[in-house]
Amino acid sequence: MDFVRSPEWPVVPIGGLAGNSATARYSTAPGTPGAVGRATPPPAGPPPPYRPPAGTGPTNRPPAAPPVPVKILVAGGFGVGKTTTVGAISEIAPLTTEAEMTSAGIGVDDPGVRSTKTTTTVAMDFGCVTIDRSLKLYLFGTPGQARFGFMWDDLARGALGALVVVDSARLDDCFPAIDFFERAGLPFVVGVNAFDGRLALELGEIRWALAIGDHVPLVQFDARDRLSVRDALLVVLDRALDRATRDRKA
């Protein structure tokens, strides 16, 4: 039978080391330090401290500050596009409190002949949008009907500005919102919603009809278009910043 024969190791004296033992083959002379591995001597002194690879260590930069929250109201009459405005710009799914319109609202809630509106806001709308790393807007849409006017004081608490949405074909519906913010002393911007891409009146005629001064910005926007809503809200921010700057200097 074929077999593999072990090498002939020298005869070991009694009490000596076996010739094929690990100690006999790899040990060093008495009194010398043992080798690390097979050939590398141990380093002299304590091992050096651990240094992480370049680019992986912690930085000394302070953590980025959270964005400043700014509360903005979106107000106006019934059926002028407040819920659409909040939904168009919000970066989250907007919170809405819509209820189906019933026959009880006939003759009370008039959305206009051009509207196909079948629901109405019974409490508020809520959405938010980040302007940049330092600023975040929280939008609160108010109910448009006069019977929900008692909620306006609570919704306006802590707000820095407001966008009053206007339907150029139904200017009468926006008078309560304009009167409210004028009495409250809250900066506001009148945004004329361009239904079907056009206005029933020119902006100059709307300013005259609403009897608002030149210090109140009057802009045209489309409540369905995100960029258009953004531009209108930036005007509100500019108005609020101007008011805050004047109050600080006073």
Description of the molecule:
The chain has 250 residues and is of the alpha/beta class. It has one domain (68-249): Rossmann fold (3-Layer(aba) Sandwich), CATH 3.40.50.300. It contains six helices and eight strands. The strands form two sheets. Strands 4-5-1-6-7-8 form a six-stranded mixed sheet, sandwiched between helices. The protein has a two-stranded antiparallel sheet with strand order 2-3. A hairpin with a 2-residue loop joins strand 4 and strand 5 (135-141). The termini are far apart. The relative contact order is 0.14. The model is unreliable at 102-108 (pLDDT under 50).
Write the layout of secondary structure elements.
Elements: H1 22-26, E1 68-76, H2 82-89, E2 98-100, E3 119-121, E4 125-132, E5 135-141, H3 152-156, E6 161-167, H4 175-184, E7 188-193, H5 203-210, E8 218-221, H6 226-249
Parallel strand pairs: 1-5, 1-6, 6-7, 7-8
Antiparallel strand pairs: 2-3, 4-5
Using brief descriptors, characterize the structure shown.
alpha/beta, Rossmann fold, two-stranded antiparallel sheet, 6 helices, 8 strands, hydrolase
Quick check: average pLDDT?
77
Low-confidence segments: 102-108
List how many beta strands DSSP finds: 8
Order of neighbouring strands in the sheet with most strands: 4-5-1-6-7-8
Beta-strand portion reads: 15-25%
- SS field, number of helical segments: 6
Largest sheet features: 6 strands, mixed
Spatial extent as radius of gyration: 39 Å
Outline, from the CA principal axes? elongated
What series of H and E elements makes up the topology? HEHEEEEHEHEHEH
CATH class: Alpha Beta
Number of structural domains: 1
Secondary-structure-derived class: alpha/beta
| N-to-C span | 111 Å
Level of helix content? 10-25%
CATH level-four homologous superfamily name:
P-loop containing nucleotide triphosphate hydrolases
